[in-house]
Amino acid sequence: MDAKQQISQLIDVKKEQFITAADRIWGTPETRFATTESVKPFLEILEKEGFLIEKGVANMEHSFVATYGSGNPVIGILAEYDALGNLSQVADLGEQKAEKEGGNGHGCGHNLLGTGALAGAIGIKDLMEKENMTGTIKLFGCPAEESGYGKAFMARDGVFDCLDVALSWHPMDTSMAWGLSSLAVYQIYYNFKGTSAHAAAAPEQGRSALDAAELMNIGVQFLREHIIDAGRIHYAFMDAGGESANVVQPTSSLYYFIRAPKIEQAEEIYKRVNKVAEGAALMTETELEIVFDSACANYLPNQAVTTVMYENLKEFGNMNLTSEDQAYSQRYYDSLNEATKAGLITRARENNPTASEAEIKHLGTMPVSEQIAPLFFTDATSGSTDVGDVSWVCPTAQVMIGCEPQGTPPHSWQWVANGKSSVAHKGMLAAGKTIATTVYDLLINPELVAKAKAEHQATVGGKKYQSAIPADVMPK
Ligand SMILES: [Zn+2]
């Protein structure tokens, strides 16, 4: 049996351990940096497996770095385990129903992401032990991917500086190697402080913080016409001053997300939004406080490593689904609207240009996609991820495994419901195998590591990574 087949088998031998961990994390959904329970299965298993663990890196209590082996190359694997707010959902149900009203839920599949990465790290470790191989494996426990960006703080503090290459994966509704970029993002709070007064009897004595927030939003609305097309500005009211309309509201708070294809473009828009906020404060005679929350960089796919990972995806990314698995997922397919269903047929046609219409119909209506999209690289973006910051520090590659119901988007109730299914578990194991076999390629092939690093240097233009998060901003 060749080494990669052995890795696959080594992961299968321990699969119950990974499935139990993934289900346990699903059952304790926690958001941002507060991943107290979600980190525990990792620490318990990694300690038992003989990894050296450093906890609480980069001022985050629930982060970790687990190391195995010694010498070069040093390969990193990124694990996430945070959930999303207000996405509680009953498992395996084909309709939206909260398990706990207003509760959290694993709507981005990070219970699978984290344990798939864990399976990858343990799979390659077991082979290295058996074959007495040199090289260092580091599994990074990264809180707050969804918002807060743990990896961006870790990158700022030099946690990834030791790496030659980093690998990760993400659940998705179809399998592919990730050749896309992602949007850089800044997250900022704009807090206004005014003076309360009776809104009818003494309005001239009041200075409305709510007016300031509204004027800021109007200013930004006009600004949108004068930024780059690909720029995105979103906001939420965190505080609208209170519930009494007869009081001049003394406080208000807005939470802004500013996105752009490149980090320097996001920085430029951020500075202009600050001016709009200052203008609103000036107009209303209120005080403005700008609180920097977090930021992350755009993602730079490393083509050399992504291409190798794609080959491993084709061989080890197969989930080997049964007809029962497809039948189980029919409930999620049935929840899709007609336009989404039509889009799946189009995608199947694009991904399989030589297939017959009957085959395309079959592929496009399967509740779980068993396709692997062709590999391509593009500057096109999709959302934001703090894997972006890692990709500026060292060559980085990731794959998507199609273990979520076809046509359903991330951050949906369907993903939460599917999170403990046999399909989800199979996807997680396929991800572990794809990661571990790619690490194997990197361990035995120094030319591949050298090629990846040369490409990375060319991509970043020899520039050293500079975090967009100011030095005095702490994860919170
Ligand atoms: Zn995610």
Automatic annotation (TrEMBL):
Gene3D superfamilies xref list: 3.30.70.360, Zn peptidases
InterPro entries per record: Amidohydrolase, Aminobenzoyl-glu_utiliz_pB, Bact_exopeptidase_dim_dom, Peptidase_M20, Peptidase_M20/M20A_hydrolases, Peptidase_M20_dimer
Gene Ontology CC: cytoplasm
A Pfam family it matches: M20_dimer
Residue stretches making up the Peptidase M20 dimerisation domain: 192-278
One Gene Ontology molecular-function label: dipeptidase activity
Name of the protein in its database record: Amidohydrolase
Gene Ontology terms: biological process: folic acid catabolic process
Entry keywords, A to Z: Hydrolase
